[in-house]
Amino acid sequence: MARLVQNDGFTVHHVEEHVEGLLNEISLGGRPDVILKDAAGRLLVVDFKFGGESSRKDELRNGAAVQVAAYAQLLEKESEGPVAVAFYVLRNRSLLLSDAITALGTHIEGPSPKETWDAAAFTFAGRRAARGAGLVTARGVGEPDLVVRRSQLRQDRLELAPPCRYCDYAVLCGKAFAEGQA
């Protein structure tokens, strides 16, 4: 990470500084771990993770890195161009990037942070409208194709696989069907 700042012309723009705003009528806020700025003025949001390199690659590849995508959209006005996102996996010191903003690290091909955010916002708006009409979908009940087995963008919507491991409602969210337990 230090090489990125030292050798690739990045400067530290913010560290753990609160960002907030309204995106697609959704009020958001949070504290990105680090925001770097390159010599051209483009921002790079870096989220530190202790481990889980393969799951972070999957998030970037499949358009499921919603948290960093939201940060990128919130910071767009401060950047000279699209905001890039990255995970820095501490366990093996690997930098996983959404685009080739730097030669350091590994560029993971997938939807852009904007495409990820747009799909998440579209999905959220659809779910909000359904709830307003009194409809709630239990992902594990009914059609087998409703079960989400991996987080991804599909048909302009964000589908998130159940991340939980501890509750007794795996049939409702679809986890039990995805794992062949139901």
Give the terminus-to-terminus CA distance.
Answer: 45 Å
Task: Determine Rg (CA atoms, Å).
Answer: 18 Å
Helix coverage percent: 25-40%
Per the principal axes of the C-alpha atoms, what is the gross shape? globular
Largest sheet: 6 strands, mixed
Mean pLDDT across the residues is: 84
Count structural domains: 2
Q: Give, in order, the helices and strands.
A: HEEEEEHHEEEHEEHH
Strand order, sheet with most strands: 1-4-5-6-7-8
Q: Which strand-content bin applies to the residues?
A: 15-25%
Number of helices, counting only DSSP H or I runs of 4 residues or more: 6
How would you classify the helix and strand content by structural class?
A: alpha+beta
In the predicted model, the low-confidence regions spanning at least 5 consecutive residues are none
